[in-house]
Automatic annotation (TrEMBL):
Classification of source organism: Bacteria, Bacillati, Bacillota, Bacilli, Bacillales
Name of protein: ABC transporter ATP-binding protein
GO molecular function: ATP binding; ATP hydrolysis activity
All residue ranges annotated as the ABC transporter domain in the record: 5-244
Source taxon at top rank: Bacteria
Keyword set includes Nucleotide-binding: yes
ATP-binding in keyword set: yes
Keywords: ATP-binding, Nucleotide-binding
Amino acid sequence: MEHIIEMKNVSWFREGKTVLKGVNWTVSKGENWALLGLNGSGKTTLLNMLNGYIWPTQGEISVLGEKFGEVDIRHLRRSIGWVSSSLQEKLYGNEKAEDLVVSGKFASIGLYEKPSAEDYNRAKQLMEQLRCSHLAGRSYQTCSQGEKQKLLIARALMGSPKLLILDEAANGLDFISKEGLLDSIEELSKQPDAPHLLYVTHHTEEILPIFSKTLLIRRGEVFASGYTKEVLENESLSEFFEMPVHVLWNQDRAWLSKK
Ligand SMILES: Nc1ncnc2c1ncn2[C@@H]1O[C@H](COP(=O)(O)OP(=O)(O)OP(=O)(O)O)[C@@H](O)[C@H]1O
């Protein structure tokens, strides 16, 4: 498999509206990408498409080397983790943190078996890796937003995905929790068995240096795509936001202000 994601001229029309238009995008093996766009730019639609929940009106999609239309999408989904603050927040309540993490193994294959001691060991390891092992024994609903995000990432990793989508993962987090989560994501990316990461965000400064490539999407079209350092610069971002902005690079992250 050469490409992790390949979209060729992908469009999606709905209710007389063009939601995605002529999207060409290739994620090659070994790359971690950020996806940046304003509200309503088409990010969620794109993610729904990658996961096969919606079908392109035009164009071709391959994910993990499997071409849509020729592959059993439910099978493919087992290899894709999708952590979304808005979607998954509502799903769990009383469950203990470690049970929630362990359940990721079964969620991805859509059946429930009694988890083995080995499964719990793996869950513990993942919680340690994400620096949230102190949450064992706590019920999910009593955890903070930042802690919940880490548990949901650990849960997604339990299914050993090859592609992990982090969808507005730092939404609603305070400064400390956000930086803590970003540190964990950076560490995760350095593990030998790390999945390919796709980090979806509204904020340039959340794009860590591990995301060497960035896709800018605006009004359903690819505005720019390429090396993060080249994409996140004054001229291109001012045009992207249709407002003069200044980018300050600090510790390899792009901090934005109005000019
Ligand atoms: N099923 C649908 N039918 C009609 N229009 C839709 C549908 N789904 C999305 N849209 C429209 O397509 C556009 C893109 O929506 P999408 O949710 O993909 O944006 P987004 O980038 O994820 O936004 P946000 O950052 O606010 O979550 C919006 O204008 C939205 O109203």
